[in-house]
């Protein structure tokens, strides 16, 4: 019976003691976890937006595809995997890079289409947040020794391709069934909605919230 232990690779991030840049990049490597748990889970609990759910579904599908490619290709990680205790997993393509570039690509396309999540006047968030995080994540995987340059570029390319493809699937195919999903029993039970047809969602919610508060029939829920 083998006594070897394996780590959950999603959160198993190591860096050289005393390396401040490595410490920073180790946290950057965890951005996909923060986006998944802090972002999409919170979005579902408090917003129930169908576009956000489809975004998360696309990320999940892309991760499955990335893992299937890894299993098929079986390209080893760089030699530093010995120190990182990661040699029992494959490196091509980089799943972290794939995830972040899918996220940045889809997020950019959503913003451009004004799909109820951001407005054109907030495009700076894409340029100064999403893409720099994607690039930093890609760099961190090489710097920390988890991947080679070719592996992170393969992951980034796959992420961009799948991001564009999934955006097309959502807006050309799935979008035809949005009303059906909203009006379905589970859709109404979970309060699932689509607000992509509203040009300025923040303004719409703000004005309606104030209007309801001023209405004579309004009662505060204590």
What does this protein structure show overall?
It is elongated and about 70 Å long. With 222 residues, it is mainly alpha-helical. It has ten helices and no strands. The longest helix is centred in the first third of the chain and has 24 residues.
The geometry reads as elongated
Mean pLDDT: 81
Helix fraction, binned, reads 55-70%
Number of helices: 10
CA(first)-CA(last) distance: 59 Å
Strand content: under 5%
Low-confidence blocks of residues: none
Structural class designation:
mainly alpha
Count every beta strand, where a strand is a DSSP E run of 2 or more residues.
Answer: 0
Query: What's the main sheet like?
Result: none
Order of SSEs, N→C? HHHHHHHHHH
What Rg, in angstroms, do the CA atoms define?
21 Å
Oligomerization category of the chains in this entry: single chain
Question: Could you give the topology of this structure?
Answer:
Blueprint: H1 20-28, H2 31-46, H3 50-73, H4 81-84, H5 95-113, H6 124-143, H7 149-172, H8 178-183, H9 185-189, H10 201-214
Helix pairs in contact: 1-6, 3-5, 3-7, 5-6, 5-7, 6-7
TL;DR of this structure?
With 222 residues, the chain is mainly alpha-helical. The chain is 64% helix and 0% strand.
Relevant terms:
222 residues, mainly alpha, elongated
